Amino acid sequence: MDVTERIETVIIGGGQAGLATSYHLKNRGREHVVLEQAAQAGNAWRTGRWDSFTLVTPNWSFQLPGAEYRGPAPDAFMPRDEIVARFEQTVDRFHLPVHYGVQVTSVEPRLEGKGYRVMAGETVWETQNVVVAIGLYQRPKFPSFYAGLSSKLTQLHSGQYRNPAALPSGAVLVVGSAQSGCQIAEELYQSGRRVYLSVGSAGRVPRRYRGKDIYEWLTLAGFFDQTADKLPSPEARFAGNPHLSGRDGGHTLNLHQFAKDGVVLLGRLQAGSETKVGLAADLDANLAKADNFEAEVLRLIDGAIEQSGLGAPPETLPALRDGYGAEEITELDLRAAGITTMIWAIGYAFDFRFVRLPAFESNGFPIQKRGVTAFPGLYFVGMPWLDKRKSGLLSGVGEDAGVIAAGIAADHS
Question: Which of 302, 320, 344 delimits the end of a domain?
Answer without folding.
Answer: 344
